[in-house]
Amino acid sequence: MTAQERRPKRLILAAGGTGGHIWPALSFGAWINKKHPECDVRYICGSRPLEREIYAAAGAEPSVLPLDGSPLAGRGPAQKAARLRALSTSYGMASSLVRDFAPDAALVFGGYLSLPVIAACRRAGVRCALHEQNARAGKATRLAAKLGMEIYSGWSECDPLPKKKFIRAGVPVRDFALPARGEAWINLGLDGEAPDGPVVVAMTGSLGSRSVKDELCRAAQEEAFARWTFLFAAVSEKIESPSPNVRLLPKVWDAAQLYGLADMLVTRAGGSTLTEAAVLGIPALVVPWMKAADNHQYFNALAFAGENDGMIWTEDDGYEALVSALIKLKGIHDGKKKIAGGSGGRGGAICENLWSLLFPAF
Length: 362
Known about the structure:
The protein has about 350 residues and is an alpha/beta fold. The protein contains 13 helices and 14 strands. The strands form two sheets. The protein has a seven-stranded parallel β-sheet, with helices on both faces. It has a seven-stranded mixed β-sheet with strand order 10-11-9-8-12-13-14, sandwiched between helices. It starts with a helix and ends with a helix.
């Protein structure tokens, strides 16, 4: 065994842009800290305030590159030029980080932040792989595939890449220990006692989701849903109750509280959230955001619904289809139980699989 093989492993995890990229990186890093504490993990992110907010919520301190978006997506020539300069600066900073840290490997999680890290690793001769959280490969993933990099996909499809170009690894998810319903209700600061009827947790975010929220609030007034409770996460500055069985919540960083309450989910089709629903065994009505880049949310929804307890509804399907889908989802819920103990089982297996791909002989 060489000295390189004997020393503790060093790994760079680079993820920025949105929570859909960042949470899988943080989840994998947390699993490594627990299962392989001898491995030194360093994070790299971009300069968007939301990115640093997410890392701070997870107790992580990433190295920050001065990059806040793709040069290809800038609003006009001035912003595109500024982002090109930031990309060049970020490459220099990433090269310094790679040189000083001397990692055994790096794993990038797609998006614009991947580019300077990939370039720095290739220049230094450091093994670099890419994790794609979506069933539709993004631009960075398609470029990485052309460069011959290893691609680890969260799903059985990574369109348009042929199957020989990627390995299915799953999406790393947080290791949730789900609280009991009453405990979660109190922890979220909700008044009164936890409901004994079905609870629907809507995690649709802010991206074009006003119509989704409005249609769900409308459904909540139907007699068929009178005993149901609808919780909307991250849609209000404070807890509000516009009707007896509807609660509007501010941003909730501890998603275990939401999952502990949820009998069913209504969610956008981010790869991380869908994988969390899958490993926790929570039936989900998936509402893909149709303006997502490369329509990747629709591909995610198809992949999820094909393998898990889920259905797809789009705003174009109309209100009656939504009501029907919710009733069918309740039937799915009644036929199964939420997986006890949280996400540690299947979620841990995903992280173990990803680790073995990165360090097959370790």
